[in-house]
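protien #1 (seq + structre)
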Amino acid sequence: MTNHQKRLSVPNSWPVERKEETFTVKADAGPHGEKGVPLLIVLRDVLGYVDSRKEARYALNNDAVLVNGDAVADEARPIGMFDILAFPARDEYFRVFPGEGGRLALTPIDEESAASRLGKITGKRQVSGGDYQLSLHDGSTIQIADADAYSAGDSLVIDNEDKEIVAHFEYEEGALVTAVDGQHAGEIGKVEEILVTPAPAATP
């Protein structure tokens, strides 16, 4: 299996120039699915903190980079929407946010804001023992005792240290939302109406 990805075929969310070179680094399996951007691209092409994969590995081996509060050792680890990147030695912190055209961009934040991250609920199910598991947009999960208050589409604020839910925002009319794809990516708006399309009737 190749460790390279053709630039012309990378997802639109990747912040790379497609015609500069033929190949770029390939993301490992992990969070965010195919839209996840390899950490090396963020460190080298976006921030300019390193010039090579070797330099990136050195920084990661010294715990110089935290993603959602955890030290990362893999330079191909996928980075995606609402991840928190922290560089404690530099006192620099960023939230991954949708930019123009749906490309991922880095928004500078302060250390206090970097202590938690956003997550969108994509599903929930009951697991063994009676607890419930919430699935989030990046592929991560959170286990809770009572899921009655949570629904797919709701948003959570999750503490990066203990991974507990610290805030819950329901997806409802009047809620503030952020467009994460398309020509309006990165824009903040308010939900005016939620239309539910009924499933087609079964064919007799």
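ok now protien #2
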Amino acid sequence: MPPESSSKQFWRKLRLKFSSYSVILLLSLIVFLLLLYVNHYFRLRVVQVSGDNGEQNLIGLESLKGSNLLWLNPESVRKIINQHNPDYTIRDVSKIYPDKIVIKIIREQPVGALKLNIGYAELSSAGKVIKKTKTGSDAEESARLNLPVINFYQQLDYYQVNLGNYLDYEGLLMTLYLLMKCRELELKINYIDINSLNMIVFNLKDREESRLLFSAEKDRDLQAYELETLIRQFKIEGQDFKVIDLRYNKPIVKF
């Protein structure tokens, strides 16, 4: 049998290469179309908000639409919402395939105004910075917001305290926790001095020179329990007090 001519060999190799390239190109096209379909099918179209005040008050939701639900990270959703809406906390982010997420929110309410070097930061009970203001004296700020002003021994810089961030200082968190307990007991606090971890002074409103003394070095639940027990007892007996000091093993009361 005569050997195959060089021209035939060339065309034969060319056809093989063309067939291989055609298969690769076809597979690439199929993969591309499949990815295009998947991206379109799982594109986020619906953002449902449940909880306080609803979707109309949340900023940043539009930036989420069009994202691929397969790759959307719930934690990134939390960061976006928290960055633009410091007065809300995200309780849960649920993905509902193929094109929907449900965001459960709760609106944070300020419980105290932390005095900064040139202003105030309104804080939630968990220490989240909800709002910042620059105007007013301590008395004016307390009256305007109907919130107790908190004087912290480590005064923070206005420009380094960012909206949406959490302040996790031990003495400050203890103060906010006990402040919520005072609200529960209907004790109105005018202003608070955090002089040290062992000297947290709550000055009562409408009770001249009446104070509550706490310590961040003592169990907070125990102090809350002791305070509740004493206040309820005084209400039953019709007694008033000048100082309740809960920093030590046994409470000290001055009338």
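The chain has a mean pLDDT of 86.
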